[in-house]
Structure formats: structure tokens, C-alpha cells
Design goal:
It contains 19 helices and 11 strands. By secondary structure, it is an alpha+beta fold.
Amino acid sequence: MKRTKRNTGRKYLIRASVLASAGVMSTVTGIAASTATASASSTVTLQFWNTYNTTDKEASTMQNVVLAKFEKENPGIKVVSVVVPYDDLLAKFIAAAAAGNPPAVLRSDIAWVPSLAADGVLVNMSRQKWAQPILKDALPGPLSTNLYDGSYYGIPDDTNTQVLYYNKADFAAANLSPPTTIAQLFADAATLTIPSKGQFGLGIDGTDVWNVAPYIWSDGGGFTNSAITTASGYMNGTATEAAVSELVSLDKAGDIGSDFVGGSGSVSGETAFPKGEYAMYIDGPWAFPTYAGEKFSDFGTELFPAGPGGTVSTVGGEDIVIARDAPNIADAKRLAAFLAGSFAQTQMADQGDMAGYTSDAAAEVKANPYLGVFAQQLLTARARPVAPGYPELDADFSAELQEVLAGNLSVSDAMSTAAQEANAALSNP
């Protein structure tokens, strides 16, 4: 399932708490009531809230394979997988937690964890003995998405990242090899743009951090300091501005497709790439089954081209968190540990959910060889700023970059403003 920018964060959490006293609460109470009723019987029933895809086998594999095995190994515990639409899940969880009836376990978007941790509604995993080997085995990028104020408040569930996709026919026609450096990537984007064919050299699916970060990080730039306390000198630093300037120049030259600016009529990379409209773009592992269904195979994948900062892409995915006031919390912890275990991780990897753990990487790549490049990219992939104020930082950065692309601001002025706005978001989550 493709991970895209969402409007989540502290402002949304506050709004969700207000909604808890209105219509949202009735829905949550109805879900939580079944937990309370089941807990009074001889069988403990745990609710596992998630957003698994029901249009393929992702949701059914979780319920009928993974959770079925957990129930077999843990007699007396029944787990119900409650699939909630993405746009509703965070509000429902906050409302349930406020009412004292949260689910046992939540599969959280990685962007939500620091906000939920700041609200004090999650179990501190760093203090759980059972979680220590899980935390130790986790890949650095996915693990970092659970860090807040020096402690981990979740454990990785699944992860993903983006790598370079390139059209083999386009590269062969231009007598080019896939770029291994970001300088070559930018040069190839210009070379591979052929207006007469309606072909753009590069597709970038938006101006948000998820899509732009690989270019900035690999070119040596950044968004904040390592402590994620300030954006000054980073978001408006020399390397960041240089990377942004290069992208803006390519866009003005007509070498980047309509997905970058977005809006009505724009075409995403995943849609345009198999049609020959974009010669290169970056995407996650979910594109492989999409293209297989479309009978498109004339493409290759490589690590994101390296620059002064190395080859750095963006970490995506979900984390497993436990509500501090979860019912039957000992059983909830047992379920969380099982979901992070090899059986669950490898079963869900077959559905496109890459494991967030070192011990499972080899097995999932053996079963799904196309995941090899993504597993390698995850070794250097980086999480977006893990902070409650990240959604505002992301929105402000994207908005300022849009102003540059519209010709309203210089890169320097836009990044300076974005840095100031990011500082406010980070200091006032």
C-alpha cells in the first residue's frame, strides 16, 4: 500500500479529542464495548485496530493466518482485527483512549507515534523487558520512528522505502546506464526529456518531505539538526538550497513531470511511468505488483543515486503501539511481541509489508527477490523528522517550495521562511 503525505499531527489530535464528545465517540464506544464484554467471559478478546487493505489479501492474511496462529498458540485469547479507514483511525483511537476504552494494540502510521507519545497515551517500550530484543533487532530507520523524548513508544510493524525506477527502453535508446550519482541523475533527467514523445526525464510525486527528502539528504542537505529541535541552518542550509535549486531548475526547464507541482490534471509517477511518460522516478515496493498486473516489466530498480550525503531514501511504514490503558494489557503485550516475530513478519512480507527487522530481511528477500534493492536501501534510509510538530513542518516546507515553483519566491527566501515556520512547529507541538 502506497504511503503518501497525510494531514496528521498534534493539531489533529486535539481536534480528535473534541470529536470524542460528538459523533465519533458513539462509533468507538461500540467497538470497545465488545472488548469489555468478552473480557468478562472465560475468553479474553483483544481488539487490533489497523488499516490493512481489504481489496487484496493483506487484511485476510492478518486475520486468518497470522492472528489465527497467535490464537492457537495462546488458548483463551481471541483477537479481532478491526480494519478502520486511514482517515478515521487516529481520531477513533484518540477518542477511545480519552474514554478509557482503547484497543489492545494499534497499528499506527509512523508519523503518529511521537504525537501519541507526547499525549501520554502509549506504553513506553524502552521500559519493557520483553521488548528489548525486539528493539535490538529492529532496523535503525524503522526503529527511529518510535523515538520520543529519549524512549521508544512503539516497535516496527512493517516498513518500506523508495528506490530509483528507470525505463530500460528509454535508457537504451539514449545509450545511458542507470545513474549511480545524483549529479548524473539530474543530467540524465534533462537528456531523457523528449517533448515530441511527451516524455519527461523525471517524475517527483509532490513537494512534501516524503518525496523530496531523498534528493536533499543524498545531496548533503537536511531539514533539522539531529536532536530535531531546530531547522535553522539545515532547511535553509547551503546544501539543502542547492538541492532544491537543482530540482526547481529542472522543473522550469520542463524536465520534471506534472506530478511535482501537482493539482488538477497532474499525473503521478506510478501512473505515468509504465506509459512511457516518465523515464525515471522513485517509488516503493508496492509498484512491483501493480506493474505485474499491468503486464509492464521493461523497467529496472537501483539504489537512490549517491551524492555527498550518500545514498539516502525515506523510511515509510507502520508501527505497533500499545495504549497505556489498554484492557488485558499483559495479553496485549504478548500480541505485540507476536506481531513483531518472524512468522508474522514473513507472512505479511508476502503481502508487500516489508519486515522492519534484521533477522527477517534475508527470508523475505529470498521469497520475494525484487525486495532485495529495498532491503539494501533500508540500511541507509532515514526517517522524516520524528517529532509531534512534523506534520506542520512538512506542510510548511511543501507550501514554500510550491511558492518557488510558481515563481513567487526565491529558493533562499522560501527556505528561510520554511525554516522559521519549522522552528515554530518544533517548539510548539
